[in-house]
Amino acid sequence: MKFCPHCGQDQSIVVPQDQRIPTEDVPVPCPLFGSQQGDSQQGSGLPRKWRIGLLGCGGLGLLALALLVVAIVSGPTNETAQSEGEGGQEDSESENKPTPKKNKSGSDNNVEAKVGERATLDDRTLVVNEVEGYAPPNQSRRPQQGNEYIRVYLTLRNTGDQPINYNPFDFKVQDSNGVQKNEETFSEMPYRLESGSLAPDGTVEGNLAFEVPQGDNNLRLIYETNAFDKRTITVGPL
């Protein structure tokens, strides 16, 4: 061979023994990291120093690079999957959680208040001013045994921008057993609440009479706006 396969020296030129470079001293860079590796091996197509470099240096480098790529790719994926899983669980819980009913203005459809407090829906307010026992003047009617009559004096106001209707049948009294009763009509009752319509910012006041169990301390007045949207105001105990 004209040139040495290890050091590349021109073999046609005779070099004195003291000026020759030993083969094992020739630095061979690692293909990936530029580090020097071992000696050549007989009977192989590549010198041993190159094969060791490719296997020891390049192989480990490729393995490290592959692990780095897997870590980069799989890391966000796992986090994303975990995030999606947690989000899905939260969405599932939020779907199973009951949603409170809201009216057009966003306020609650079912409002509770005490006697003397103002209960507010989006287009009206209701105040039960006073509650007391009631005895018809002419004693023409008597309550059933164990029952009594009560008188409820209330104020209804239209706070919306459209007229609203009102009717005594919109009001019921519920006793402690859950029994609801409509009003009792007494023509002789002063300021009895009649049916009618309220213009915006209009106010109406009146009395309603109900037959209830005597001595029941858990009576509640239930006002329902109409049979379609079924918004209610509950006032109690009476």
Give a verbal description of the structure.
By secondary structure, this protein is of the alpha+beta class. It has two domains: about 80 residues; about 130 residues, Immunoglobulin-like (Sandwich), CATH 2.60.40. The protein has one helix and eleven strands; from the N terminus they run αβββββββββββ. A five-stranded mixed β-sheet has the order 1-11-10-6-7, with no helix packed on it. Strand 10 and strand 11 form a beta hairpin. The longest helix is centred in the first third of the chain and has 49 residues. The radius of gyration is 48 Å and the shape is rod-shaped. The chain starts with about 45 loop residues before the first helix and ends with a strand. About 15% of the residues have low confidence.
Supply the number of helical segments: 1
| Average predicted confidence as pLDDT | 77
Q: Any idea what the radius of gyration is?
A: 48 Å
Output the CATH class name of the largest domain.
Mainly Beta
SSE blueprint:
Layout: H1 48-96, E1 110-113, E2 118-120, E3 124-133, E4 147-158, E5 164-166, E6 171-174, E7 180-181, E8 196-198, E9 203-213, E10 220-224, E11 232-235
Parallel strand pairs: 1-11
Antiparallel strand pairs: 2-3, 3-4, 4-9, 5-8, 6-7, 6-10, 10-11
